[in-house]
Amino acid sequence: MTKIKILLLSFICLLVATSLRADPRKTVKTASPVYPAIAAKMKVEGTVKLEATIESDGNVSDVKVLSGHQLLTQAAVEAVKKWKYESADAKSTQPVNVEFNLPH
Question: Distance between CA 49 and CA 32 in Å, rounded?
Fold first, then answer.
């Protein structure tokens, strides 16, 4: 009986976690990152993966770096902090990818 309860509880937790991530909020305004001069000089390109905390009014209150080249992360964070999302009933978090590509 206990194993069934644990399985049921695990399933409910998974379902709730999935539903929280299922409907990402849309961006209303974005800001492009400023390519760091040293990164451009060194020809560093790539994706910076972030997690943005979005307040109910749509403003970004916090940005966490998940991965990306160290020379690019600060520029990505600064850009995403200027983004604006659609309003919602509560604060949320969602993943954000910022691409850095040099012109070829």
Answer: 15
Residue 55 identity (one-letter amino acid): E
Domain 27-100 has CATH 3.50.50.60: no
pTM: 0.77
Q: What is the pLDDT of residue 103?
A: 87
- Mean pLDDT of the region 34-39: 97
Q: Which helix (H) or strand (E) holds 54?
A: strand 46-54
How is the chain split into domains, by residue range? 27-100
- Which tokens is 53 given? 């905390």
Whether residue 4 is predicted with pLDDT greater than 90 in this model: the reply is no
Residues 6+ apart with CB under 8 A from 20: 92
